[in-house]
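Below is a typical protein record.
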Amino acid sequence: MSADIPAVVLGGTGYVAGELLRLLSAHPHLRPAAVMSDSAPGEPVAAAFPHLVSAYPQEHFCSEQEVQKLLCEAPRAAVFSAAPHGVAAGLIDRLLAGAEKAGTTPRVVDLSADFRYASGEAYAAVYQHPHGAPGRLTQFSCALPEHLRQLRTRHVGHPGCFATAILLASVPLLAAGLISPTLFVSGVTGSTGSGRKPVDGTHHPLRHADLYSYGALSHRHVPEVIACARAASGIQAEFAFVPHSGPFARGIHVTVQAAARRPLDAAALLATLREFYSGAPFVHVAERAPHVKDVAASNYAHLSAAARGNTVAVQCAIDNLVKGAAGGAIQWMNRMLDLPETAGLTAPAAGWT
């Protein structure tokens, strides 16, 4: 099959958009057709992403109107939204309304938080502003590809990067009924998780050779973790989460601890994880503790586990920009368009990053 399905990237100048473009440039079935940016329309894509100049030597950022025209003319298209929270919903609503009027059927994966909640009220409770398109919420599911085998909606709201790692580690044990539904999570993320706009948390002299927590027990992604874990496992769980900023650019490492309902050993935990993810091509379970360097710049997740008495711990390492965002979105889109789930995503980790 040739690369014959046009792909559109919204919010085109951020780190996640850059990763989408990098991955799409080598995708065998999706053709990068438009990159929208409100802040840089008409400017070269390579000016924002010099490392992508070989893949996009002539392409320019386009306007919303140009994207709308493309979506109204293409019988089907893949839309990846990397627009910010609070902006994505309204933008997606307008583009889908135009496509519906034209009789075309684009599919959307949104990487903001705008379509991770079942109701506008639940979204507003976390983000403190009204939802931009509450009438669209029923058209979106929020889940990891590994946790929802049959998608019943046209579009997807991808969980956040921390949420991705936490869910990969916790859902199998919750679903198997092996642990109590109170989980304690410690996670470390790289500086790219804070986005492209420089802030104190990403400024290199402040972050280099340092490690510190932030938002302890109050991280705004916890409600989406609770909702996604309930949908995937059937269990209403509580997550006590303490995130940390790490002195590296990309990657996430989380450790999830919980009380076992009966004494377990590491072999039993690993067997449970392997069985649960037996059909998941991007999840690797091993006795060796996962390392961020082993997954950085890839769509793979590495899991391991330990046990002592009635206490269990599961560790997960992912790349926050790929498995936690752009790669997970492409993985979903592959399934939504009946393409091989692994298409364009099987490159190994870079190593020594």
